[in-house]
Amino acid sequence: MTDDVDTQVGDRLVGRVLDGRYRVGARVAKGGMATVYEALDMRLDRIVALKVMHLGLGDDAEFGRRFVAEARAAAKLSHPNVVAVFDQGDDNGTLFLAMEYVPGRTLRDVIRQQSPLPPARALDLLAPVLSALSAAHDAGIVHRDIKPENVLISNDGTIKVADFGLARAVTTTGNTATQGLLMGTVSYLAPELVTEGSADARSDVYSAGILLYELLTGSKPHTGDTPIQVAYAHVHADVPPPSQLCPGIPPYVDALVQRATARDRDLRPADARVFSRQIHRVRSAINEGLSDDPELTGDLTLPIQQLRQDNEYDDGYSRGTGYVEQQPRNDTIVVPFEPPRPVVRRPATATKVPRPRQPKKGRGLIALIAVLALAVGVGTAGWYYGIHRYTSTPGLLQMTVADANAKAVELGLTTTLANQDFSEDIPKGEVMDTDPEPGARIRKDGEISLTVSKGPERYRVPQLAGLDQEAAKRALESIKLVTGQINEAYSETVPTGRVIAFSPKFDTVMKPGDAVNLAISKGKEPIAVPDLTGKTAREAIRTLRKAGFTVGRTDRFDEKVAEGRVISQTPNSGTLFAKDKVQLVVSKGPPLREVPNVRSKKLADAQKILTEAGFTVKVEKAPFNLGLNLVAGQNPAAGQKVKPGTQVIVTVV
């Protein structure tokens, strides 16, 4: 048993920003070599699927090099049935792929909920997969990991294939088959990948054929207790016709499956495009309602039959010896087979007329002894099979797995870990339920299934700041939290519709069903623009800055507006946002005027000239005044430009 509880409480990636660009959101799925998260590409403001390689893979320099190379190759695939690869990165040893986010479900969900499927439906689901593989094979790319989990079905029904090249990046870094790829995808593994470690387009065809078998039957063709047993079956046993499990499947569909899953890769379709053409022929036969098409069936099965004939193939039944399979590289495996015993029929003889038997003495006593013996035998058998072989299931609740197993072994029983579940009452790691239940009858050598507590179900609040409202809601739902009160508020930094803040805060541990309150941005707050025309420039600037605006100023002369007051502003009404600019035009008063020359003029004439020019006049007498009333000097001097209304001092003699 592992003490790791597969929840997001310990997932420290949730809420982080990788490579300064991708904010990691809710976890979507977890596989053998990577975990997929919904993430926000903050640079392009879009939701992506972030596939993060498990810790340790990033420490392998060779894997990092191949990972980059395979990601670049996959990114070149542009096809409507291929999940697009946008980016790849390395954040301090955390390798990741940024891919197209496909909301919906996987083909595994369809198999789990709907299989076995009618042949027409199964072929329709497989056709887009082969279309994607055809594009890859044309580009020289082998997927190597076709399985239902890598086939995504969007909410609008579009089928897309994911993870091109990742299996190759993993399996070429020193991981053995059982350590790496085999552990997760052995049920769909081509024989040559097990025996030789090599793959080509025909390996993908084999995996697609297994996929078709599972769609048609709802089960995998090869099973075993360990991955190695399943891998052995791929190498040494043919995939049976689907009609063995689901009668009514046409022979040409059986032939199609067995052709695609031939153990010798030379007998399979050369690539996905060839396989796709075969599926088109089979689909047409189904559309025509044909229960059998000997010509089509023959076209699909002839190469296999021909090879067996060329190799003097012995099916083990016609000769009644054993089941011998011809294997590549002289790997001949003999599986013992016992042919059915012949039925021996005795020659007919003349019918004899039985003679009536005479009753013998003691027959009644013999019958009585027989009845008593039978009663004793039945009683003994009933005791043995009904009581003697059974015992009571011990009470193992609230024990550790080790203690529960030890107690069971003392009684001659065994235990198996059947399930883990959350419990508010039973501490983590202790048994919370058994099957059979305590006190129930169990065989003395029986097995007890244990359900072990994962402790209280708790989740950590993910980082929601910056996510849009729907993405935040999905992130909470993925860890069984709910969206609580939603408040809208203006924000100068967070775009409209995105989360400004949330409570409880990030990383708070909460129970399922607990609510997280969100503050959603309404965008920047609009600010009404006041009309400050006619106000002093100082007052207008202070008012606008206090409202949050920046202010621009231009000064100019104006005959009507007093100096220092606002002539106009732009805009002078409506609304703006903080830090937006309001432009003011401030008056410098009337334009300057040139002082006329009144020297040597009579005082009366000088006063008239200056007054008409818009100036005021002050008369001063010279110290040596002679009484002539002539202007001997003036200040400001003649020709100088001054403001209208300026006082001109004239000196008379």
Task: Explain what this protein looks like in three dimensions.
This protein has 653 residues and is α+β, with helices and mostly antiparallel strands. It folds into 6 domains: 11-100, Phosphorylase Kinase, domain 1 (2-Layer Sandwich); 104-330, Transferase(Phosphotransferase) domain 1 (Transferase(Phosphotransferase), domain 1, Orthogonal Bundle); 390-453, Trypsin Inhibitor V, Chain A, CATH 3.30.10.20; 459-521, Trypsin Inhibitor V, Chain A (2-Layer Sandwich); 526-587, 2-Layer Sandwich (Trypsin Inhibitor V, Chain A); 593-652, Trypsin Inhibitor V, Chain A, CATH 3.30.10. Helices cover 30% and strands 23% of the residues. The protein contains 16 helices and 31 strands. Strands 1-2-3-4-6-5 form a 6-stranded antiparallel β-sheet. Strands 7-8-9 form a 3-stranded antiparallel β-sheet. The protein has a 3-stranded mixed β-sheet with strand order 13-16-14, covered by helices on one side. Strand 8 (151-154) and strand 9 form a beta hairpin. The N and C termini lie far apart (122 Å). 32% of the residues are buried. Residues 22-283 form the Protein kinase domain.
Strand content: 15-25%
Mean pLDDT: 81
Question: Please, how many helices?
Answer: 16
**CATH hierarchy: architecture of the largest domain:** Orthogonal Bundle
Task: State the separation between the terminal residues, measured CA to CA.
Answer: 122 Å
Biggest sheet overview: 6 strands, antiparallel
CATH H level, superfamily name of the largest domain? Transferase(Phosphotransferase) domain 1
Question: What are the low-pLDDT stretches, counting only 5+ consecutive residues below 50?
Answer: 1-9, 169-184, 304-361
Sheet with most strands: strand arrangement: 1-2-3-4-6-5
What structural category characterises the helix and strand content?
alpha+beta
What is the CA-atom radius of gyration, in angstroms?
46 Å
* Overall number of strands: 31
Cα shape: elongated
Tally of individual domains: 6
